[in-house]
Amino acid sequence: LHAVGESWVFLGYSFLPYDDGMSFFVSFDGEQEWHIRLQWRPEEQGQLLDNLEQYIRAL
């Protein structure tokens, strides 16, 4: 879970077609890298990824 208003530094992303895997690489503190794994399928995080602009935005 991530709090409303939480800020990240976006480092990059990767997509794995075999499993519809979307990974975001971010840093919360400017030092450590975090890997956020999602799956672009309706029964997983597909709704979130299809509407990503409703959940995150660039500052």
In summary, what is this structure?
The chain is mostly beta strands and 59 residues long. The chain has one helix spanning 46-50; strands spanning 9-16, 21-27, 34-39.
Radius of gyration: 12 Å
The largest sheet, given as strand count, sense and whether it forms a barrel, is: 3 strands, antiparallel
> What order do the helices and strands follow?
EEEH
Average pLDDT taken over every residue:
94
Structural features, described:
This protein is mainly beta and 59 residues long. The chain has one domain. It has one helix at residues 46-50, and strands spanning 9-16, 21-27, 34-39. A three-stranded antiparallel β-sheet has the order 1-2-3, with no helix packed on it. The longest helix has 5 residues, at 46-50. It is globular.
Summary keywords:
single chain, about 60 residues, mainly beta, 3-stranded antiparallel sheet, 1 helix, about 10% helix
Helix-strand blueprint:
Elements: E1 9-16, E2 21-27, E3 34-39, H1 46-50
Antiparallel strand pairs: 1-2, 2-3
